[in-house]
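Data availability excerpt. The first of two example chains:
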Amino acid sequence: MTAFVGTSGWQYASWRGDFYPKGLRQRDELDYLAARVNSIELNGSFYALQRPDSYRRWHDATSDEFVFALKGGRYLTHMLRLRDTDQAMANFFASGVLLLGDKLGPVLWQLPESLEFDADTLERFCASLPATAREAAHIARGHDSKVRHPYVPRVRNDRRVLHAIEPRHPSFGDADVAKIVRSHGVALVLADSAGTFPVFDEQTADFVYARLHGPEKLYAGGYDRRRLRTWARRCRDQADAGRTHRDLYVYFDNDSDGRAPYDALAMAELLGAPSPNDSR
């Protein structure tokens, strides 16, 4: 098992003068964090299509072994609600995503809490997800004018593209959910949301994806050592289920009080995540 542990994003005012030293330039914050954790979840891509030069800059600012998880666009999940997503999917992958190259980790699809489980909708959406970089590039060729600076590479060295889905409606506890996502190799996210949303603790892919949003209040507070050990054990149990060692991706989203980076560092130690300094 290889553990990739980090935070959801890195640009937060509450981190400045605390986790980030006073006077650190905002443009240096990614470099500072990426020197201490081996992965970060990119969340700007959730709110809007990013530009190729941004993906190129993020790629170049990190070490060779660094991995970015990438949050899929809310236009597909929250507005289209997983239906008729072909055009939006093409635009998403044409926006520069593949410039991350070997540093592209799982793509996270976070669902709105109001979205109920529908088997046909989930099946069609999972079937539409590209399983490789070559498939993603093929999909990207269908982009429209909403992508102002498209990047559609000719993929020579193909590689897998992983996907994880984070439902938030209780109806996703239906046994058919795990069957559907498992058939497409999509990971069902293990999430701690301070009791706000249900926990889906089902291993469905050959990797594990966990998101920790806060122990007692959503996006706030910090995890003490006892809670961190509990979640480390829970994540490791999924990664080692069936005597199969799966890569593990863990991201802290309790950013409002500035605790996320500290908790990520502590979790990385518990899980034995490789240090970014080892590859610099």
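And the second chain:
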Amino acid sequence: MRIIFMGPPGAGKGTQSEKLSKELDIPHISTGDIFRKNLREKTALGLKAKQYMDKGLLVPDDIVVAIVKDRLREPDCRKGFILDGFPRTVAQAQSLDSALSEMETELTCVINFKVSKEELIARLTGRRVCKACGATFHVKYNPPKQQGICDLCGGPLIQRDDDTEETVEKRLDVYKKETEPLIEYYTDKGVLITIDGEKDVDEVYEDLKGAVRGCD
């Protein structure tokens, strides 16, 4: 299955991607993870992307598209994949369509997670990430056993630059302007399914599994 997860920052795409990835035994491909890996390793790509990410802006298409195309050609994607965080613009979606056409395949479905702005802000500003291992916690919904300390490795928990309230507001504005047009784009293609992302994580996952089964 070849699936795209859509939704604003904080909608739960990453969490649901990881769960479905294990169940379907297909890779979860997150552009955010790819960029953060490059940031940690201070690669040229990472430093270039950081200029945009720190401001809550989208990384330019030429950087993102090349990375995703290469990733989709790797052997573990032959059975399918879950794309999380890409495409973010209609132009990227069109580039993805071209890439899949070259690979003689097509999308199975696009899942759109719908969450209110108020809930998104609460989720994102409360997120904390382990500086050492990258594990994610939340001050309200998934707090660590010891404040500021990772349960898994004991590393320090930090608030990412793109999770401050000011930057979150910018990220949501960018999403509305640049990414929401994809809802119409994929609706017109007949592959979009919208689910309520404000429910409990397990409830959302049950809805997600039902949606995916319906488009298989």
